[in-house]
Amino acid sequence: MSDAPKHPADPANEFATDNSAIDPRDFRNALGTFATGVTIVTAMAADGKPYGVTCNSFASVSLNPPLVLWSLGMFSQGLTIFQNASHFTVNILGASQQALASKFAKSSGDKFAGVSWAPGLGNAPVLADSVANFQCRAANRYYGGDHIIFLGAVEAYAYNRQEPLLFARGGFGGFVADEGKS
Predict the structure, then answer these.
(1) What are the angstrom distances between the C-alpha of 141 and each of 16, 52, 162?
(2) 152 pairs with which residues across the strands?
(3) 34 or 82: whose pLDDT is higher?
(4) pLDDT of residue 4
(5) Which residue, 101, 91, 95, is CA-closest to 174?
(6) Rounded to whole angstroms, how far apart are CA atoms 130 and 38?
(7) pLDDT value at position 181?
(8) Could you give the CA distance from residue 2 to residue 139 in angstroms, rounded to a whole number?
(9) 166, 116 contact by CB (below 8 A)
(10) Per-residue model confidence as pLDDT tens digits over 123-180
């Protein structure tokens, strides 16, 4: 008898067929203990309408070349917009932008109504007052279970010293830096 982990031949298929021994809700709760930043990823649709979605699956991949990634659910409303866009912008939200995060997290009509933004590379919207933004050329996509992972080559970025918005255990929060230690 071996103590080696038993992995399915195709992990994506394990979840797709409901054969996993892991309870999805409990797994989500465990993942929620990891605090993340909150972003709105934006792109311009083929019809010229801006599109955006709240996302906390953003991560850096490489400094040289500068690469980032984020993921979107396979059945998300705007999936085809991001699949067809030449560029996307990852807008890192500040602590004062919780309402904006909630607005872009919902399926609604015009999410950009009343939102200040400027067109970035590939016309992907760059949101005003975000803590940082990363304007990316869509470099590649990978399938991962019930999500598509978007890899972006960063072509421009900007940031400031505002406090970032954080998300953990299903709620928003902030970060308090320990100013006294290096």
Answers:
(1) 19, 18, 31
(2) 68, 138
(3) 82
(4) 52
(5) 95
(6) 10
(7) 60
(8) 41
(9) no
(10) 999 999 999 999 999 999 999 989 999 999 999 999 999 999 988 888 787 777 777 6
Q: Judge whether residue 34 has pLDDT over 60.
A: yes
Residue that wins the pLDDT comparison between 105 and 19: 105
Per-residue tokens: 105: 């997290």
Between CA 111 and CA 60 the distance in angstroms is 26
73 close to 147: Cβ distance less than 8 angstroms: yes
Secondary-structure breakdown of the chain: helix, strand, coil percentages, each rounded to the nearest 5: 20, 40, 40
**Using CA atoms, how far apart are residues 176 and 162, in angstroms rounded to an integer?**
12
The answer to whether 107 touches 80, Cβ cutoff 8 Å, is no
Of 149, 130, 131, nearest to 140 (Cα)?
A: 149
Residue 174's pLDDT is what? Answer: 74
d(CA 32, CA 169): 5
Write down the pTM of the prediction: 0.84
- C-alpha to C-alpha distance for 156 and 137, rounded to whole angstroms: 10
Q: Tally DSSP H helices, then E strands, for the chain.
A: 4, 12
3 state DSSP class of 8: coil
What are the Cα distances from residue 2, in Å, to 5, 6?
Answer: 8, 9
DSSP 8-state assignment for residue 123? G
